[in-house]
Amino acid sequence: MISSPRAAEAAVASDDYAAAYRSAFSIDGAAPEEIPSADGGEIRGVVVQEAPVNNRVGKHLDTIAYEEIAISLGANQSPGIYAWIQSMLDGNPQPKNGSIVAVDGRGKPRNQIRFTAGRITEVAFPALDARSRVAAELAVTIEPGGLTPREPASSLAPPSRAKQKAWFSSNFRLNIDGLPSATARVNKIESITIKQSFTYPDGPQSITASPLDVSDLVFYCPEEFAEPFRAWAREFIVQNSGGERIATLEFLAPDRKTVFFTLLLSGLGIYGCGLEGDALKTASSRVVKVELYCENVSLYVGPYNPTPS
Predict the structure, then answer these.
(1) Distance CA 149, CA 190 (A)
(2) Which burial class, exposed, middle or buried, applies to 297 when counting CB atoms under 10 A from its CB (0-12, 13-18, 19+)?
(3) Is pTM beyond 0.85 here?
(4) Residues sharing a CB contact under 8 Å with residue 218, sequence separation 6 or more, in sequence order
(5) What dihedral angle (degrees, nearest 10) is formed by the CA atoms of 297, 197, 116, 71?
(6) Which sign does the torsion angle of CA 271, 233, 125, 188 carry?
(7) What are φ and ψ of residue 137, in 5° steps?
(8) How many Å from the N-terminal Cα to the C-terminal Cα in the chain?
(9) What is the per-residue pLDDT across 156-199, written as a single tens digit (0 to 9) for each?
(10) What is the number of other CB atoms lying within 10 angstroms of the CB of residue 102?
């Protein structure tokens, strides 16, 4: 029996693409390693309109634009990737060359995007909730200085596929200096994001980085444990005393002993501490929302071990 061209085409599609695609990421020439997800990184033409002629508007391509690359990371990526993030948070952003590889369900690389002079513009640490079983991921946005069009990657070796460590948004530990018992009762923390933008005043060879924009630290705890936060708010907001504080936020493994990452948060000042939402103000479940501004964030892989002075 001779198959029709359409049937043969469908068989090829089924063989090559039926299984779900995955993503692999690489910087500095390292072998690509699988990551939870990747998106963006395409080249687009910028269309401009011309002056009308005979009641018709002509159009043409003026230049090209590079889409941002959005990736998510797990808890066991290579040290070089985390070091790249650390350099951005430390105020020393480093441009990197790298690639995104699409891998089919059989582990075969199908195509890739290569970027040059990529700079991190945003890092988002996951929102945390003690009652959640959602997998946690670290989201990173990259602004590429240049891109190659998506190209076949069949000649590449299959990327490394280390089993992702179990990392859940329910496993965390917050400790604010001087408030250990109160922060031990915190059961929910909003996502923390750090952003930075870049401008090129004299063309691609010149670059100016904006100051880091660090989001607030916002968290929640049952009202019966919130008095230490309210006391700090009275001192800091009303009496203009009490001072700024530092904190550590640890992202933990399911055993709640192993520390995947630690954020050192400094320059923390409280500006809000009140009951959250009408639905949460019942007599049996009153929740306090605590809002702190934050000036600086540092990332440590594993626990934070301050060097004695």
Answers:
(1) 37
(2) buried
(3) yes
(4) 189, 190, 289, 290, 291, 292
(5) 60
(6) negative
(7) -145, 150
(8) 81
(9) 888 877 778 899 999 999 999 999 999 999 999 999 999 999 98
(10) 17
